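quick one, 318 residues, struct below
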Amino acid sequence: MLNFGIIGAGGISHSFCGALRETDGAQTTAVAAHDLKRAEKFAKEEGIPRAYGSYVQFLSDRSVDVVYIGNTTNFHYECIKMCLLAGKHVICEKPMTETEEQALECFRLAASKGLFLMEAMWSRFLPKSLKVREWVAKGRIGGITAMQATIGNNIKKDMTNRFYDPKLGGGALYDLGVYPIDLLTWFSRKQITSYTAKVIWAPTGVDETVSLDLDLEGTPANAMITFNAPMPEDIYLYGEKGVIKVPRAHWGGDAVLLDPGMKEIDRFSQPERFGMKFEAAEVVRCIGEGKLVSDIASPEMTLASSRMYDRILRGKGN
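---
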């Protein structure tokens, strides 16, 4: 039995605890938050034995084998290092870090300590995502000729909330953009080789809309990411023989295969319940097999995304 500890008492951590209850070989034994009362409330709601208001005390808990980090983006880098230095395996919510340099440092530290580290890109593990990759590999739509992705929410323009606060790692690219950037490469089995980006900046200095024109090894793709409008959150893969539509690409259970006339010819559908359980199972499997990284949510996946953050948000080149 692998014992998980939780850092962060927000909604995403509740979702992960629900997933752990559905995962063989896993249980949650402790939770930590900066506010002890929040940690205690979380522990009571999730049936967790121990709650801590100090990360240092939490990491001294010998019952914790692996830590799930679910707090805001700005804390991820330091929390990952603290956990690894304390001898704990780590799965960290996306974006795992704010920069490529931070990501590299974390993976190198994990390797030096002989510990497992993975970004919690749960969408890669969904059964529908694996089905899309299977359809592509089997040539169901022939060669991919173009791709499109949209993801957006109409976020309240409160410049003090986590979405707009740069001190909390705010911005549309960190919060939403990680999904199309990652899933377009995952589904197509191609890497981003160049891009152009149009960014609309919020008054706080974070990005609130990003339009990306991408080149994936010669295949064009477009991704629209925004805090300014609700979007369908779909991905389309266009091919010589048809189209794959992935509704609500980063969650849910459906994938649709269309013929050249956009008529549905096949559909994969599996109702989603605790979709994070698939990534949790990967953590249990990898650690059980002595692996330090996942082949599915690999370090290369994380580094590619963080490299895009550096280039688009900090102007470090194309």
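The mean pLDDT is 95.
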